[in-house]
Design brief:
Order of helices and strands: HHEEHEHEHHHHHHEEEEEHEHEEEHEEH
Helix content: 25-40%
Distance between the termini: 56 Å
Radius of gyration: 32 Å
Number of helices: 14
Structural class: alpha+beta
Strand content: 15-25%
Shape: globular
Number of strands: 15
Largest sheet: 6 strands, antiparallel
Length: about 550
């Protein structure tokens, strides 16, 4: 690309940014703000197996002796450090050593206790295992249970007694993973997913070529662990390292409360995940190795209306326990259109559910979700909410840019969206990847990000018909869709005036540089000719 083409490319890119910026400035100037389980205690026959289900004979010190806390770069990305200084409502004290509460649609951290401290997760790991299987498998596929899947477990590890060589559908297997916390089913799920990948095939071929001894089952588990770690990063879980599909103790298998919340946030976007989580019981069918059906039950006590730990609005979650992790619990619940995700780590059977209740109550009692497109007033003229050309050069009102309708902010109930500051960004990955998105409008309250909405190109085939302006009533009816409104005539006039000035300046500079080069070439040619003539005269005189 030559220098002139490079300039034109930058010119048009800058033009789009100027148009959008002018639009927002115009809207801002015209704004009229409105007034503003697996636990160590048991209670029912369904729960009595929890003391032994996920224990391990391994012994280890707390992970804080082996792994440092997540570095400051993670904190800066998640902004959870600043929540300690923001004017949040008074937070409860929990028994667990670490905990976090986030709002699901925005990812905003509402409560934080050591949420970036790396700890052992136990069976809450299985949320990641199930999510990966749903994203990379088919529920109707038959999953084969290999030797390692069954015989790597120790006495007392959670299981539904599957046998080597048994075949069970992926759907049935995942219900066993999430409801009964069956460790052999988690292993089989990991192997099933890994064996479908080119990474597994390539690894096997590499080992064959090298002549090394290998175990296909262990290779599959290793490949699946790599997939888990990669998916964790995609979810924003940067302080996590998984080494197995089930969460049984391993020193290099750890995560953080914040990371598990982010992993769960991605998992609950999957309809099939929510369907599994909605069940308190499930019947495992007859298989090639088992002639009878088997009923399994969800271990999460907050889902059972008859249990004293029942929580209204609870949609699902996952329990966990090994000796090294203590009790861990992930719970997500929805009330009044707002979904909260609670994670408590290294608690105990007597306190884990109370810790979770304290966090969920804190969130629902003190915070509310606000839709940005329905409540944003800083960038509107008349409440319609879009860049519009009322009485413009076009024959109809044209909506050029609109706010996405799914953007939200979460704030304390006594705080309004007008109390937030906003920042426009153009370089987010999802903005760059999606042609319909122009920019992202990020909202902050006391420097804590509390939500965002995309600015979208409004595609309307009828938007740009030229013709005389139509007579329109002075009373504008409220529309359901929210847009940002400006006058196209003034906007385009101002923008093109600026662009004309830029083009004029560039043209002058371009021609000035070209003329200067020509003068230098002429001067150089004149000097060269003069020297040549002088040399010829001298030669003639010497003759």
């Amino acid at each position: 690309m030559n220098s002139k083409n490079k300039f034109l490319h930058k010119f048009f890119t800058m033009s789009l940014a100027i148009i959008t910026s002018f639009s927002l400035i115009a809207g801002d100037c015209a704004a009229t703000y409105a007034e503003p389980d697996e636990t160590q205690s048991t209670e029912t026959s369904v729960e009595t197996s929890q003391n032994n289900t996920e224990s391990s004979d391994n012994s280890a010190n707390d992970i804080s002796n082996n792994n440092s806390t997540v570095n400051d770069s993670i904190n800066s990305q998640t902004q959870t450090e600043s929540t300690k200084n923001v004017a949040w409502p008074g937070a409860p004290e929990i028994f667990g050593e670490a905990g976090v509460l986030i709002e699901a649609s925005t990812g905003t951290v509402l409560y934080d206790k050591n949420c970036h401290q790396q700890m052992y997760p136990a069976s809450i790991t299985k949320i990641m295992t199930t999510m990966l299987a749903l994203e990379n498998g088919n529920l109707s596929d038959m999953v084969e249970y290999y030797h390692y899947d069954v015989y790597s477990l120790e006495i007392g590890d959670a299981s539904i007694a599957r046998q080597e060589g048994e075949l069970l559908s992926l759907k049935d297997t995942l219900y066993a993973v999430m409801l009964a916390s069956a460790n052999e089913c988690a292993n089989a799920t990991g192997e099933y997913v890994a064996r479908r990948t080119t990474a597994f095939t390539d690894k096997i071929e590499e080992l064959k070529a090298s002549g090394e001894d290998y175990n296909e089952e262990l290779v599959a588990i290793s490949v699946f662990a790599d997939m888990m770690n990669e998916r964790a990063k995609e979810a924003g879980a940067l302080g996590t390292h998984f080494s197995n599909p089930n969460g049984l103790f391993s020193e290099d298998h750890y995560t953080t409360a914040y990371d598990m919340a982010m992993i769960t946030r991605d998992a609950i976007k999957l309809d099939e995940f929510l369907k599994i989580e909605a069940n308190t019981s499930y019947e495992i069918p007859v298989t090639n190795k088992n002639a009878e059906t088997q009923m399994i039950y969800n271990r999460h006590k907050m889902l059972f209306p008859s249990n004293q730990n029942y929580y209204e609005g609870a949609l699902g979650g996952k329990t966990g326990y090994v000796d090294q992790s203590g009790s861990t619990l992930v719970t997500f619940a929805k009330r009044n259109g707002m979904t909260l995700i609670s994670v408590v780590m290294k608690s105990n059977g007597a306190n884990i559910y109370n810790d979770t209740r304290l966090l969920l109550d804190y969130g629902f009692d003190n915070f509310a979700l606000t839709n940005i497109s329905e409540n944003e007033s800083k960038f509107t003229f008349n409440g319609l909410g879009s860049f519009s050309n009322l009485n413009s050069v076009f024959d109809t009102d044209s909506s050029l840019i609109e706010l996405s309708t799914d953007g939200n902010v979460v704030l304390p109930k006594d705080i309004k969206i007008t109390d937030c500051t906003s920042k426009l960004t153009f370089d987010d990955e999802d903005i760059v990847a999606d042609d319909s998105k122009i920019a992202k409008l990020n909202y902050y309250y006391n420097d804590v990000k509390v939500g965002e909405a995309d600015l979208l190109l409004h595609k309307n085939d009828e938007s740009f018909k030229f013709g005389p302006a139509k007579e329109t009533p002075t009373t504008v009816k409220q529309k359901k869709d929210k847009y940002i409104n400006i006058n196209i005539r003034w906007l385009l006039g101002g923008v093109f005036a600026i662009l004309a000035i830029i083009a004029f300046i560039y043209n002058r500079i371009f021609h000035a540089n070209r003329n200067s080069k020509k003068r230098r070439r002429r001067s150089s040619y004149s000097r060269s000719s003069s020297n040549s003539i002088s040399y010829s005269s001298s030669r003639r005189r010497r003759r």
